[in-house]
């Protein structure tokens, strides 16, 4: 926070994007709870992964430690695996 | 100057992600929600990563950001494609206002049966069992 | 000498293709954002069948990815013999024009690089 005190515009931008991403997470939560079918809920998983990448990036800007970018790489890989696994599982379920 | 550029990139990326989330709530069926997520959310991630790279100009940050961008760009269309295909086979209902549905006719005619990928994975599964 | 020139031309085309891909990504995100913010009464969604002539596997995968990244279209399914592709489109005011854009513009660009 001490570093950011010299950059007021960036400080505002960071807090604004935190607010946007939080609202977006709640919107995803709404769709997750009321989604009429299972694919709707899996789509929300994809959205939440993107939002978490955004949150990590905003957190990097807040703390000034780009080490956390490793987490974003891992999430970007894992969500693809999760999508494929869900698609395969659903396909097997309709074949039976 | 750099501060302004970084701030604008960060805010626009967050706004794109917010728009994608609003689209997930507002649009009427699964396929249109996939439109919103594959496009708006991946562009939001790219803009925010660009802001990090501009603010921390080091080699390792650039390489890792490039890796994230490549994964997101290459894998999100594939995931959406597989999920949309399974969703159509599951007979997830489509929304209002559809003008044509040629995929339904093709499935009824049997054009899409005998998927080669299906056959390969099925034979592997049976051998293991 | 000729083959080196050929490889060079192909490489330049690949770079141009990557730029085109990024341009399509930005444009389609703006389109989708605009569609989400404004009321959605103007949408004419539908599933369209488009025949493709590509033979190479890599070329077909790139075409499917590129279709998912162009404004208002999403690849849904494909026949097992890889001759027809099924697309979910958001704006189907004119089907002929949509098929012409996929066939003429995108498939032509892919063919220049991979075949």
Q: Could you please describe the fold and organization of this structure?
A:
The complex is a heterotrimer of chains A (96), B (129) and C (115). Chain A has three helices and no strands. With 96 residues, chain A is mainly α. Chain A is elongated, with a radius of gyration of 17 Å. Chain B is mainly α and 129 residues long. Chain B has one domain. Chain B contains five helices and one strand; from the N terminus they run αααβαα. The termini of chain B are far apart. Chain C has one domain (2-114). The longest helix of chain C has 36 residues, at 2-37. β1 of chain B pairs parallel with β1 (46-51) of chain C.
Spans of chain A of at least 5 consecutive residues whose pLDDT stays below 50 are none
Compute the number of structural domains of chain B.
1
**Class per helix and strand makeup of chain B:** mainly alpha
Radius of gyration of chain A: 17 Å
What is the helix/strand order of chain A? HHH
Largest sheet of chain B: none
Largest sheet of chain A: none
Treating each run of at least 4 consecutive H or I residues as one helix, how many helices of chain A?
3
The oligomeric state of the chains shown is heterotrimer
- Beta-strand segment tally of chain B: 1
Figure out the total of helices of chain B: 5
Count of folded domains of chain A: 1
Provide the gyration radius of chain B in Å.
20 Å
Structural class of chain A: mainly alpha
Mean of all residue-level pLDDT scores of chain B: 81
Helical residues, percent of chain A: over 70%
